[in-house]
Design brief:
The chain has 126 residues and is α/β, with parallel strands linked by helices. It has six helices and five strands. This is HAD family hydrolase.
Length: 126
């Protein structure tokens, strides 16, 4: 999926509760670091999730001020809350930290139960 996103010339940022160096190390170990344009760890912000600061920093570093084109994807309610408070669309994925019921309570714009659905939401399926 990350390869499809990059081929579609879309930017990718990760905003994490982990420190930036740990986040980058994890992405290197997963061999996905080259797909990521911006890494924002908890050490780069004053206010952590669900505050929107991390997402605002990421968007600024990507020179993206068109919030209508942004979708923040997350597996936890704090992710969805952060995206909503930053003024962007959100997509809750069901293969992570929180249950569907918990994620639905945070009112995501979209919900993806599988990668195919996420592909469709991101407009990567032809």
């Amino acid at each position: 999926m990350l390869d499809k996103i990059k081929k579609a010339q879309k930017n990718v940022a990760i905003v994490s509760s982990k420190k930036t160096d740990v986040l980058k190390k994890n992405c290197r170990q997963l061999k996905i670091d080259h797909f990521i344009d911006v890494f924002i760890g908890s050490d780069l912000v004053q206010l952590h999730k669900p505050a929107p600061e991390g997402l605002h920093v990421a968007l600024k570093l990507m020179n993206n001020d068109d919030l209508a084109k942004v979708i923040y994807i997350g597996d936890a309610t704090v992710d969805i809350m952060m995206g909503t408070s930053a003024g962007v669309k959100t997509c809750a994925v069901l293969w992570g930290a929180h249950s569907e019921e918990e994620l639905m309570s945070s009112d995501p714009t979209y919900i993806a139960s599988d990668v195919h659905t996420l592909d469709n939401i991101l407009g990567l399926t032809h």
